[in-house]
UniProtKB/TrEMBL annotation, chain A:
InterPro entries: ArsR-like_HTH, WH-like_DNA-bd_sf, WH_DNA-bd_dom, WH_DNA-bd_sf. Pfam families: HTH_34. This is MarR family transcriptional regulator. Residues 13-93 form the Winged helix DNA-binding domain. It comes from the Bacteria. The lineage of its organism: Bacteria, Bacillati, Actinomycetota, Actinomycetes, Micromonosporales.
From TrEMBL, chain B:
The chain crosses the membrane at residues 38-57, 69-94, 106-124, 136-158, 163-180, 186-206. Keywords: Membrane, Transmembrane, Transmembrane helix. It comes from the Bacteria. This is Uncharacterized protein.
Amino acid sequence: MTELDPVIHAQARLRVVASLSALPDSDQVTFPRLQEILGMTAGNLSVHLRRLEEAGYVAVTKTHRGRTPVTLIALTRRGRLAFEEYTEAIRALLASADAKETS
Amino acid sequence: MIADDDLPPEDPAAALRLIDEQRATAARQFEPDPRAYYWPWGLAWLIGFGLHFLYYSPGDTPLVEMPSWLPLTVLFVLLAAAGAVSAVAGARAYGQVTGESARRGAWYGWSWGLGFLTLFVLAGRLSDSLPPDLVGLLWSALAVGLTGILHMAGGAIWLDRPLFLLGVWITVVNLLGTIAGPGWHALIVAVAGGGGMLLAGLLGWLRRRGRR
């Protein structure tokens, strides 16, 4: 496979990005909720989020709700775009594979 | 060290499958279960307005004898229960999400609250000067009418066609019932309105399962 975004092209991070893409554009989800949806351990999710954050695909906001600290996560515009491009690339690969089989 | 889940998907087909499944799972988590959202209201209308019809029947005598406080008490208890169930379902889906959709939800909630406050004050002012059967019609037609219109507004806010159509349906049912008059209004709202909500919950649930 050529030129697939290496940040997203890993099962765990693809799942993280795909889940976040289901949120409306300007919404954020709390860390525990995201963890619950993905069924990952907190440590594992943190590692992948850091990698996505370094790439500028995910924004992690630390804030407070009352006195309890809350970590909020959302896809950045750049992350959404990268995910769309990745999905397009995958579709194109599938389409060209189909074309080869039928020809 | 590379963890297992750091590996790329096996092939493009696997990647696409993973994307679709994960998006569907997440979307399901971010919306409340339509059954929890619609069925309690549908049942409350069906039973509550049903009792209302049996007691405040179109003729002069009740179809079924019961204590006079029963129909309204049952209706309000069931409506309160429905409100609690859908609030819990909504909190589970939306509680861990913040941003524009949380604000939309909160403002929409305020519209319901202020709408019903207006209705209570207005109908309360008018109730003393109307005959009992018209008082019942006034309260229920205003409440059902407001519910229908707020469902339509909700459909417009979230571009949710089933929600909008349910609002149109409730509004039409309410208009027809109001024209038919006291007693009949309760029957029509119980069967067509309550039934419409039960159906909306069922259709929403089936649609959601279809996405899996």
